[in-house]
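Support case: user asked for a sample of complex input and structure output to validate their parser. Sending the pair below.
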Amino acid sequence: MSIVVPDNNKPMKRNGFRFDIKTWGPFIALIALAILGVLINSAFLGADNLSNMLTRSAFIGIIAVGATFVITAGGLDLSVGSMAAFIAGVMIILMNGLVEQFGVGITTVLFGIGASLILGMGAGFINGVVTTKGKIEAFIVTLGTMGIYRSLVTYLADGGTLTLDWNVRDVYRPVYYESLLGIPIPVWVFLLVALVGYVLLNYTRFGRYCFAIGSNEKVAEYSAIHVDRVKTLTYVLQGVCVSLATIIYVPRLGSASAATGVLWELEAIAAVIIGGTVLKGGHGRIWGTVVGAIMLTMIGNILNLTDAISNYLNGTVQGIIIIVAVYLQRASWKKNNV
Amino acid sequence: MMSAPPIRLQGHRISRSFGGNQVLFDVDLTLHAGEVHALLGENGAGKSTLVRILSGYLPPSSGEIKVSGEPRRFRSSGEAEADGVVMIHQELALAEQLTVEENMFLGRELRRGLFLDRRAMRARCREALVELETEIDPATRVKDLSTSDQQMVEIAKAVTRDVRVLIMDEPTASLTEREVQILFSLVSRLRKKGVAILYISHKLREIEQIADRVTVLRDGHLIDTGLAEGRSKEDLARLMVGREINEMYPARSSVASDAPIVLEARNIEVPGAVRLASFTLRRGEVLGFGGVVGAGRTALCEAILGLRQRRSGEVLRNGKSVSFRHLRDAVRYRIAYLTEDRKGKGLVLNMGLRPNLTLLNLRAYCHPLISRQREAQAYAEAAKRFDIRLRTDVSTAGELSGGNQQKLLLAKVMSIDPEIVIINEPTRGIDVGTKQEIYRFIRDLTESGCSVILISSEMSELIGLSHRVAVMCAGVLTGVLEGDEVNEQEIMQYASGIKGVGVNEHRRA
């Protein structure tokens, strides 16, 4: 479709009404998947099942919102899963240790939450500074920190499991299990993070700079953007997201071990990519990421509700969906460039 | 006159167009065995296109190529090499991660049965390097070599082939004086062996030293060809540029003699690119920067702006010492920079036009969130002021024509409302109409009290627009020309190091 604009310097026509498969693709896929779910088992649309599913997708979803920024700015963070495990481990040790001093009240939990945020920001800052100042590829740096955090949590747990004090857990429990206005707290957090992420990415200088840097770092530099600063900030933001996800994760099981958060980084990246963000940077979409995270959980959920495909094939189905999603995006990408 | 030696390579009535744009017009070129033939011309005169055609990298639109009298139609550079026509590139074409010896035999590895004959390759490689009097170890990886060593490898690579015609496109651009002399002695040896050499250089002194025959191109036309003897450097310089300056250029605004100095650079030194350069810029003035590509003009300006590291030197803005560590600092002092590489450094090609326009001064459109409405408004104003005309629905900057891209970039740069604008090659690759608009825009700028630094490789542009012209040669600012001195011959002589200060003392990479 080509709209001919007469030569009179009108501002360009927006293509707001043009149906763009790249923007709506993930949403359509989600709806299709949901319809499939209903056909397979009517319990799929039950309030219990839906809220359960959304709650579970919150962890990956929150982390994936952070990953959207990192990837849009041309970076990558592989360390998020082990970072979450490490933060969870430190939180538990800290809260258990503070019980004597502050009792099992809210204060102890708040200390745990505060520590989580500080650790998340710190860990993200380290990833950011080492990649930008050290001029090392993000893949390598975060592969390194991924191993470091994973081994640290194993060390802290002495190879076993760290368990949160039973009484503290009682206080902390509602953060995962309670609901507000009928919607579970983790879903609220997820929603809030996504909303803030959306505004940050689309309506602030920081977000715009992420796009520019991810598209062409040189152009960003020549546009007087502090490239290193912005890139570092994306990793810090990722750290905060990991920290928030961990804060709602800890009360779920009340424990952390070397097996906590394994493969979360790949699920988060998968959610981002399914959502239409370009892996090599320059183009990111928060709502796409949210949909991607929900879709990944939904696949597992549907497989649970049916006997047609073994639940053990969850990974296979997810893998196929990821590849198909990216293939569709590329195909339409090509068309758009003609 | 003695009978001319046999002809090795001949181009007959070679023409070439890119799209609708003809860059070569019926050019003849004849290379004789055992002769060094220099090819001269300004940037954009068509030299590189011509040699790429002769060496098989590019087919001609029309015309004929003959090797030792027989017509040839090269379909690739490999076919030309099989005929003994080898080209040494201006931009190095080496595989960085491979060793010197692997590079030298890349694509024509010596083998013994199924396996590589490393010993034979190493021996031949060493031989070639010894002939160049270098101490490069054949086992070093190319990425660990200095640029001049890489250039030597490139030359050695060409020589190890059975070369009958050697084409060198600015081979000395990254060589030191000593290496240049070694290269010249190699050239004489090859000449004695009967190799025909086509030598492209901007440095007229070199031409004088080694060329037997010269050909001058201007705007894609053959201007002059013949024996080097009897053609002086000054003659050649005039032939290269001797274009009339027409009314392409608007009348210059006048600069008051007591106009304050708004920017001053003192003894700027950039490692490997600029040596102790100093200049001043007055209010309302266009200061041109002349010289060949790679003479250090861009490096000098970028070092002032905080885009490049500099080793020493001082920058004064309105008489006060300032230090820009980041381009943002320069922007704060209302200095704008228009890069020469609009696709690689100027515009985000896959982004829309409005975000591109506002990227440099985004905070002006935030309160605190980005206002799409203000962006749209700014775009509408810019489209009007800079006459950005779109015929079809364009959604990204990459889809714009070169001229519109340049206007958008200009609008982006002007969004900070600068007092000083540094403009680098503003008219590269754009059509005449847009060129003129840009010239007028530069005049308007100075009339409103802005100052402009204009880096350009187009001689006529410099002369037509600048009040003064600073000329650089090999990293040295050889002189600042004023008044009647601002003419093509003078600039060419300063740019090629015939005239000017300090060239011989600090001649370097």
